[in-house]
Amino acid sequence: MLLIADILENKERILQGLHKRGLDSPEEVIEKVLNLDTQRKETKTNLDRTLAESNGISKQIGQLMRQGEHEKAEAIKKKTAELRTSGKELQHQLSDIESTLKTLLYQIPNVPHQRVPEGSRAEDNAVLEECERLPVLSDSKKPHWDLIKDYDIIDFDLGNKVTGAGFPVYKGKGARLQRALINFFLDEAIKAGYAEIQPPIVINEASGYGTGQLPDKEGQMYHVQNEDFYLIPTAEVPITNLYREVILSEADLPVKHVGYTPCFRREAGSWGAHVRGLNRLHQFDKVEIVQIALPSRSYEVLEEMLQHVVGLLKKLDLPYRILNLCGGDLGFTAALTYDLEVYSAAQEQWLEVSSVSNFETYQANRLKLRYKSEGKKTTLLHTLNGSALALPRIMAAILENNQKEGGIKIPEVLWEYAGFKEI
RNA sequence: AGAGGAGUGGCGGAGUGGUCGAACGCGGCGGUCUUGAAAACCGUUGUACCGCGAGGUACCGGGGGUUCGAAUCCCUCCUCCUCUGCCA
């Protein structure tokens, strides 16, 4: 959520940023916000004045009562009736204005960072780094949706039976490889100084608003109706919300957490031929890294997180490229996002396996996540997160890129974790 | 899930209709004393909003209500504790 004070101060810069996202007329909504804010202030001033007067009279009444002057007290009481009705009226006006203002602010995405490239389509994303020699497989190469059947390690039909499409069942070495990857990712993050968290995988509404999944992506989350909970689409949500309404001290920073969770996404309307097999699922596993950083350091932290993810891909020996997402492709709440994609030699396409983002104060403002600086001022922090990593496409790439006649070699770093070297 | 009890500032803990943003203790910060530290003593110590400022307003788990006035009374939801039930 954008800060009104920031909109007032940097209106032009913010409008430019919103144009970069391809918004039609951000001027309109920004003007509405500023007008409402003016109304809010006026109403608040009036309300406070009314309440102050009414409080004063109440105090007088109290004094008179104590002195036993009941008639005088009764006489003054009558004066308050009017204040009371106008106070109620103003109170209602104020909460109406505030909720309209909030609804409006919820509709405005984060302002892209200066380094975010112009553009609206995937082709406009800037490739910052790309593996030079892409692997080429023999003509007998198979996509992972065939390989998993050949080796009987992931079963979509069983998932269909038990749940439905997009909920695969991992079997035998498939399950063990999953577990190996999760443990490998967790251990690597812990080595890099991240403290492990095992959060709940269902969250309440407040948490959904805190990190920005609500109200923007309401339809993308599974909703537990009888409890009004949501299944998490990513561990980012529960882990970041650990710090909702928290004031940290400077010494606590940066906060670094890692968590493994299953993730649930309805992916309404996003199915097609290009998302076969493991490429898109309703339930998948992911290890997520989250940091809370000082505003002055958050872009350093972003680079550090990016390099952590790059390190994982290198250790897994997967060909990757790094994208700087363009304005049109940037997520609603992010200021800058690096996507990491892995090349699948069998599908002959790039698969997104990680998104590393800086949200600056956008989430922190919703979360009321602040720190107390030396000068005793409370200031919003910056939140960041990244997948390190999402499992299914990593799994797909490992299976596809390492396939050979009669077996699939798994990366050496996983041998110990998996307990086998080949499928 | 049922019955009973409880939720107050960083923590502990008073307060059951007005003088309460809230006693007191601990902790934190500043100071006195000390070569330094400890102890002792003195002072200070929440957040947000409105206002140029003086100052004002709101917040005692959340929301709503009664009242001139609510931490205090009523309703409702949430959370925790105890007992019973059920269960990995």
TrEMBL record:
One Pfam match: tRNA-synt_2b
InterPro entries xref list: aa-tRNA-synt_IIb, aa-tRNA-synth_II, aa-tRNA-synth_II/BPL/LPL, Ser-tRNA-ligase_type_1, Ser-tRNA-synth_1_N, SerRS_1_N_sf, SerRS_core, tRNA-bd_arm
PROSITE patterns for the chain: AA_TRNA_LIGASE_II
Keyword terms of this UniProt record: Aminoacyl-tRNA synthetase, ATP-binding, Cytoplasm, Ligase, Nucleotide-binding, Protein biosynthesis
Top-tier EC class: ligase
Enzyme Commission code(s) on record: 6.1.1.11
SUPFAM superfamilies xref list: Class II aaRS and biotin synthetases (SSF55681), tRNA-binding arm (SSF46589)
Localization, UniProt: Cytoplasm
Residues of the Aminoacyl-transfer RNA synthetases class-II family profile domain: 176-411
Main location: cytoplasm
Catalysed reaction equations from the record: tRNA(Ser) + L-serine + ATP = L-seryl-tRNA(Ser) + AMP + diphosphate + H(+); tRNA(Sec) + L-serine + ATP = L-seryl-tRNA(Sec) + AMP + diphosphate + H(+)
Signal peptide stretch: none
GO molecular function: serine-tRNA ligase activity
Pathways per UniProt: Aminoacyl-tRNA biosynthesis; selenocysteinyl-tRNA(Sec) biosynthesis; L-seryl-tRNA(Sec) from L-serine and tRNA(Sec): step 1/1
Family membership noted in the UniProt record: Belongs to the class-II aminoacyl-tRNA synthetase family. Type-1 seryl-tRNA synthetase subfamily.
PANTHER family linked: SERINE--TRNA LIGASE, SERYL-TRNA SYNTHETASE
The protein's name in its UniProt record: Serine--tRNA ligase
